Amino acid sequence: MVKRYLSLCSLEQALSLMKSSFQAPQCTEIVSLTRSTGRVVAAPVYAKYSVPEVNISAMDGIAVRSRDTVGATDREPVTLEVFARVNTGNIVPPEFDAVIMIEDTWEVGDRFQIRKSAAPWQHVRPAGEDIREGRLVLPKGHVIRAFDIGALATYGITHIEARAVNIGIIPTGSELVPLGVRPGPGQVVESNTIMAQVFLGAIGAKCTRFPIVSDDPDLIAESLLAAAKENDLVIISAGSSAGTRDFTADVISSLGELLFHGVAVKPGKPVLLGKIQGKPVLGLPGYPLAAQTALREFAAPLLESWGFPPSPKYPVRVRLAQALTSDLGFDEFVPVFVGRIGTTLWGTPFVRGPVVQMATVKANGYTHIPAPVEGYETGHELDVLLTTDPGSVDRTLFFPGSIDPALEELAAIAHDEGLFIHASNVGNDGGFFALRRHACHAAPVSLPIASPLFSTGDPFMQHRPSRDLAFVHIAKIEQGIASRDGIAFDDLPGVRFINTRKDSSSRQVFDALLRMRDIPAARINGYLQEVYGPQAVATAIRNGFADAGMCTSGIAGKYGLRFVPLAYENYELAVQQEMLEDPRICTIIGLIRSPSYQAVLKRIGGYDVSHAGIIRGMADDSTLTELSPTAPPAGYPGT
Amino acid sequence: MVKRYLSLCSLEQALSLMKSSFQAPQCTEIVSLTRSTGRVVAAPVYAKYSVPEVNISAMDGIAVRSRDTVGATDREPVTLEVFARVNTGNIVPPEFDAVIMIEDTWEVGDRFQIRKSAAPWQHVRPAGEDIREGRLVLPKGHVIRAFDIGALATYGITHIEARAVNIGIIPTGSELVPLGVRPGPGQVVESNTIMAQVFLGAIGAKCTRFPIVSDDPDLIAESLLAAAKENDLVIISAGSSAGTRDFTADVISSLGELLFHGVAVKPGKPVLLGKIQGKPVLGLPGYPLAAQTALREFAAPLLESWGFPPSPKYPVRVRLAQALTSDLGFDEFVPVFVGRIGTTLWGTPFVRGPVVQMATVKANGYTHIPAPVEGYETGHELDVLLTTDPGSVDRTLFFPGSIDPALEELAAIAHDEGLFIHASNVGNDGGFFALRRHACHAAPVSLPIASPLFSTGDPFMQHRPSRDLAFVHIAKIEQGIASRDGIAFDDLPGVRFINTRKDSSSRQVFDALLRMRDIPAARINGYLQEVYGPQAVATAIRNGFADAGMCTSGIAGKYGLRFVPLAYENYELAVQQEMLEDPRICTIIGLIRSPSYQAVLKRIGGYDVSHAGIIRGMADDSTLTELSPTAPPAGYPGT
């Protein structure tokens, strides 16, 4: 039996119900000063004494009574009988109310002569200049910053009463294994409660993770009761979908009250909220990105309504690099990668569904598409909340295209130059498409080596933009057939093949060879089954889903597969000519040319780097020029 | 002998010299996953296995070989012999490449009939959908976020190799006492190294604070050598000014090399950088705000050049609420309070010098005035970097004026409504001045109770803006003479008096009484010595700097002083009429009217709250109307 959600309420209704149903717990904790950064002050902090506590001299000189100095001039100097010698920082004794700089005095025996009167309190740092005893230092609700701690220490404050909240987090699911155990087939690491613990801990919550509970209503009930007893908020992970093993909603109903189950939010629809023993119980959906939505859009706002600090938000306005569709009536949250090309911030949404956690890892922001919106066109401007330091956006290069391990190595050394390469595996076509829109910094592409095999009629050539492009050579890569058993091209009709996408270099080679040998595609079992790039091919073969496929020698070796070479491809970085002047691209070219990077590729194996860093243009709009050494522009590093 | 700085170099030169003189230490640390938020990845993280590791069904149904389904239609159903029953999340056995939803099948005995062919890989979550074995999860340099940790846990990663840096921090100064010891006269708590530890710790540094070293060159040298041996960076606090007890520069020169001493930056001019045993040694100036500059503008950028994350920066564009002067040739950093009035962000700079730490505590941002700039006019637009959550700016009310403890209590309860009151003690004049420019939300003012004593000719009246103002009554406060010994008004000529500023209510009362009794101001010893408000008066009397002064009964009582009543003042919140519609001001008025707030004031004592929350306008441009109950606008909370 498939259960239904009680009802699907809107995000706004759900949040309003949540915030109005629970009072802030009156829980505080004494925190030592050095551990108080980011904590919220629970009781106002007052100064215990004045700083400075007494009047202090701001100069080297003499402390005087200002009334004794009245009338002193060059023509009628005054000789002071009552004074005290003071240095900067010394106490000004209570009987004095001014300091005269030593340069403005003349010693006359054991007395001082002055030729100008002193204004009351001149050169005196009055007691209480910084703060006065009993005055408010931090109001309730202040979020403590590092530099506040310096002031608090100066004022003698050693501990802070901070807001506290105890959160019990219960993982449920029979398919879960704890972190540190390698999951078997069909199992997954119990990661959502770890994420919840870290996320909520950063807000100032004290989180207790409970042991994993299997899909058993009685055990779930037992754990929920224990967690509600000891905590101010209970979070229960998974079991809230509408499946046959999803007991969370029913158990909460039986122990207390279910406030909502199912919210028109994506990802995150199965989120639920209940009340047990007066305590809120938030049910996280099981899919990781849905759990993130529930934590960020429900748990964090609840804590915020209880006086905890909001997560920092850095909104930026971006143009969409690709169209984005959204379900009408659902508030959607979509991970976005933001990069600056020229003066424009471009946002590339990740729309690979709620289980692909790499989407949030690769994204540096997310956008909220309101319920009444059905989507946006390419080029539409919208707000993105960054999840990284905003400054890092300008240090990030977006390289969509064909991803080879050579690019990952390039990214690793680029970071030492302060640059992040964000690579997304969209194939040659995807890379050229982004280049044409100026929506990326460069596109890594794997181009078949110019040979009689390839004509301008090949589909690959259709998408290649014209002469405003330049190609920076990274390496020549050997490609051929990977298999567990050393399968050669001619053996293919008898085995399970796995193909690569039409726009890939390996597919170009493969199709050309089929044509040359007059082998119909239909004879290749698996010809229609396309994956992205050589790593996907190698994985499929290694895991037994296919017997052979086109791969590079390096990746085949890395996956422990045998390899029969067929051809070469050029792995190159395609850029708009104008980007050759971008200092970040200059740095990348310098790195491609560096002996240390080339040494890394040689160590991996399968790369010919003898032309690395050579830049070539297009001879005309449709054919590739021969690879030829082109003088690199002046000023490039590494030349 | 006064020593000179070796030479004053520009901020730019100093930073460039600093970054080029030291290589990043190759120091890393293994951090457990749950403690890795905010840490920087030191070695690329690769996936240990694919997720999912095998093909998974995305639906409840049957796993099939897609080639068996070719040709199935309603008219020619196909009956499958080879299949496997699967539920969502189940493994799709390797021999199958598609899943057909159970709704699209018809059971025929122990077999299934279908009426539509299945596309290869339909309803299958392919192995490696999230990530493939061996693929890059996090590049070197990635700063780990809470949601990354969920992904890392899923991929079986339990520990991270993170960048690490060891910093030794040495406090110097014979006047220092450690935190927890109450400083005697002329002593201060050693707080700058605590601030450094917390600030640098948040960036990911492991800081070791050394014991306090007194001003002795040999002891300083010993401590510097020990710190340089064990750490990647040494920070030495104070002793770098040009005074006679400032040995830091000389000691560093003798042990190694002094790279710069004295930078054209304010506050922070005495900052120095040296090299001992190849390690950088940064000398922090002793004044707290100068030390902050050195930490934020030197230590943090050095760590950033070593690959540590920059502190988050939230730039906002603000209009200056008051003019700001700057020394030509110096890069200046000025704490700023930013508040939103209507649609404009207003910035009020704090210019009280490098020892007043309360300036940074009260500020929510700071601005950098470049060296070639001499200052800005009121209304000038400039960039401020916020030091608090940007969202908090809209929840903050700026209340400059006369600060009474009643306002601090109001601030404390306002926070429970999500509002921060930022109060700055600038007197009635300062409050009215800000109100006139619309550069504050409201001004707390202490107005003398209308009486024959006060005429429109009083200087106090000059600054009061006209009929577009409204006054929200907070309390009637008793004022009179505070002293240790019960001094009355007529006793004043014989004692040391401490006066309050001309724009204060107590000064109005005092001057009026002098006039009524025909006492010349010159007969009052201390008449010219003015401080801000009653708390400053009470502090001065309690600390023995004066014998008597005008104060409120509540504050006199709090400070343990005797009190002789003379008159009353109205403590009121002056607002622009239009602000009465601002929901935040409505909330504040509701709080002033709340029985709980009034109970707090009664408990403190000295407050008459019988008219609290009554709003009155100005009868004409120059006189105060009688206090009379005015019907509050509809919709106010608490009415």
Report on this model:
Two copies of one chain form a homodimer. Helices cover 24% and strands 28% of the residues of chain A. The radius of gyration of chain A is 35 Å and the shape is flat. In chain A, helix 12 links the parallel strand 33 and strand 34 (530-531). In chain A, helix 4 packs across helix 5. With 639 residues, chain A is an alpha+beta fold. In chain A, strands 31, 32, 33, 34, 35, 36, 37 and 38 form an eight-stranded mixed beta sheet that branches. At the A-B interface, strand 11, helix 2, strand 15, helix 3 and helix 6 of A face strand 11, helix 3, strand 15, helix 4 and helix 7 of B.
Keywords, separated by commas or semicolons:
16 helices, eight-stranded mixed beta sheet, homodimer, flat
Summarize the structure.
With 639 residues, the first copy, chain A, is of the alpha+beta class. Chain A is 24% helix and 28% strand.
Number of helices of chain A: 16
* Largest beta-sheet characterization of chain A: 8 strands, mixed
Radius of gyration of chain A: 35 Å
How far do the termini of chain A sit from each other? Answer: 69 Å
Broad shape of chain A: flat
Name the quaternary structure: homodimer
Number of strands of chain A: 38
Beta content of chain A comes to 25-35%
> Mean of residue pLDDT of chain A?
88
Share of helical residues of chain A: 10-25%
Instruction: Considering residues with a beta carbon less than 8 A from a beta carbon on another chain, report the largest interface and each chain's count.
Output: A-B, 113 and 113 residues
Strand pairing plus helix content of chain A: what structural class? alpha+beta
Low-pLDDT ranges of chain A: 459-463, 626-639
